[in-house]
Structure formats: structure tokens, C-alpha cells
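Input.
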Amino acid sequence: MAQPNPAAAVANIWKTTELKDKIVFTLLCLLIYRVGAHITVPGVNVLALTDFFANQGKNGLLGLYDLFVGGGLSRATVFALGIMPYISSSIFMQIAGAVLPQVDKMQKEEEGRQRINQWTRYITVALAVVQGWGFALFTESLPNAVANPGLGFKIQMVLFLTTGAVFVMWLGEQITERGVGNGASLIIFFSIVERFWPGIFDTVRYIQTGTTNVLKLLVLGAMMVGVVAGVIAITVAARKVPIQIPQRTMARGRMRDGAKSFIPLRINSAGVMPIIFAQSVIVVPGAIAQFSGKPWARDAADYLRPGSWLYLLLMAILIVFFTYFYTSIIFNPVDLAENLKKQGGFIPGVKPGSKTAEYIDEVMSRITLPGAVFLTFIALLPVFIGDQINVPFRFGGTSLLIVVGVALDTITNMNQHLLLRKYDGFMKKGGRSLSRSVRSPVGGF
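Output.
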């Protein structure tokens, strides 16, 4: 079956007035976000902050946070907290739904979901206040970073950062409602992509000065193509569990075979969250050493420095653990089996009810292992590349998973709009469309 021309698919976007307006609105919102991400909070010496992040903070938790906000944290901008307080509160409510029956019941009702959304906003404000106060304390701890430290500076920092976080949350919600794709996902996507360009320019300077050579870059380029292809394959890969729904017909009292379908169980259901959890845990010794100054804490931080064998081993163990942990939170085989039973459906050869739940849970446990191994490979890839190839950027890890996942989600969203208008989309016409189950606020997080 012939595949549609991508150029024709892009042209069809502008023929669809509704989709064109959504894209323009989304780009305008993202432009506003990127402008605000370059406005510095008054009273902060940006050079002191950027020096710290360049020399010490790029591999820690602050460096990971700075990646998600497009460098706003290292520049102390009004959008320094970005969309992360909203993401954190959304994940908190998601976990609460898995452990608290009352919240889980609310998530299944329209009125309950609206209340949960409102609670999420309140928690976002609270988190932004706490994080803003913490960032103010951190900024004051750096030499010559604050012109007039004290209570006034802390209140000012909290006010600016909290207002910025609430405004970014509002922008994300507007994109989700009136634009294309998930607003929070796109904000993080553009924050990460925006930092690619400085790395490209630095790479050119590295070649000009002889710090690295063209052959290494060609090898790196081939690796990048292969890894991106692997990430896309794993992101959309799913184990299809066949199901059958019986159907009756009144003609002559006969029964006919039910409709056959399948349940797609994603290999990487946890998305990027296991890597984030693992990195958040493994940087704790370094953070303790930085703020306490104790000799034992510094020794522990040295053992767990990025690239050491203990760091690699613990990262691998933590990623595998959090992959199973987060998958168990977002995926409930009991609910899935009950919904299937209510529809009269069943898995051929498996009894409905508890046996179906056990079967689905067993299948999910098996396919989660290769997903966890893949996440471990992607997370540790930047460490190996940094050791072998001297380039001013790190390829792989959290940023690659987010960029690929959000890009696939956005393309799928636009493709659905085009198909609804009977235009050829980006994918094969009449074939299976690419679909991903978004279980978290960050498109596949």
C-alpha cells in the first residue's frame, strides 16, 4: 500500500483551518515561554550561577532540572522553575490514585477529575513556593551571586518564581485545550531542543581548535542515528494480547464469532520516569556533601561520581527497580480484566476475571524486563560517549527519550486531525495508525 508524500501531508495541514490555527496558537504560546525563559530575576549575578552549573552542577539534580527548563535555572530567570512544579504535582496525584481508593474513584468520574485538576494546581503553587525559597537559599550560598542577600531577596525570589511557574502552568493548559498535543510535554520538549544549538556551535569550535576530529564525529553521528531508531522502535513497541468479544445475531437464532481485537501492552510503559527517579536518588550523596561539608559525605560523593563503576552499577539497579515500581503504579491488570469482563470479552484460552488479571500481569512482568534493560542502556550511554569521544554535549539519556516520545505524540495528534478531515496523514493510509497511551502529564513520561 502506497505511503503518502510527507510534503503533501505538510501541505494538507494548511488546508485544514482548524489544525492550522491550533499549530499557530501552540507556537505563539511556546514563543512567549521562551521569551520569559531569558528574563532574569533582579538582584542575581548570572555569571556566578552559570559558572557553578558549568563546573559542578551539570551532573547533579540541579543540572537535570536545568535541562527540563531550558537553562532557566542556571540563568535565574522568571521561568526558572518552568513546568516542573506542575509535573511533580501531577505525578503525585497519579501515585495517590494508585494507593488511595478514594482518589482512584474520583479519577473515574468527570466531576472527580475536575476536583483532582484543581488540587493539582494548588499543589503546584505550594511546590513552587518551596522550590523558590530553596533556590533563593542556594543562590545566596554561592559567592558573589546575590547583590543584597536577606529576607527581602528571598521573598522577591519566591514571588517571581512562583508567579512564573503558575503562568507556565497556565500556558501548558492553554496549549492542551486549544493547541496541538500535550502542553506540558511540548514545553519540556522545546526547552531541551533549544539547548541543542549551543552544543552544535561548540562542536564546530572543537573541530576548528583540534580538540576533537571529524572521524569521531562521524562515528558519533552513526551512533546517534542508530540510537534514535532504537528509541523510536522501543517507544512504539507493544505486546499485543488477543481478545475476543462474542456477538449474537437474531437471524435464525444463530451465533457468530465475536469481533477480534487485541490489548497493546507497551514494552516501555514507564517512559522516562525510572531514569528521573534513579538520578534523583543517586545525586543525594553529592547534595549532602555540598551542603554539609563533612569528610565522609565528600568520600561517598567521590565514589558515586558519574563514570565510576559504583555509579554505573547503582544506576542500573535503580533504573530496573523503578521501572517495575512505576509500571505497577500506572498499570492495573485487575481493572483491565474487570473492564474486559463487563464488555463480555475474554482472552482465548484464559478464564475471565482473576485468571485474566494474572495472565496480563505475568505478560507485563516479562515484557517490562527488556524495557528496563533498554532504559538502563539509554541512561548510561552519555557516560560512555563522554569518556570515549570528546564532544561538548551528551547524547542519550533522559532528553532523548523525552524528545522522541513527545515528537511521536505530536505527530500522532496532527495525523488524527488530518485523517478526520479525510486528508492523507504522515503515516500509511488505511494501515494501523501509530498510537501511544499517555499515562502521565509529560507525553509518555
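The chain has two domains: 17-212+439-445, 220-248+256-389.
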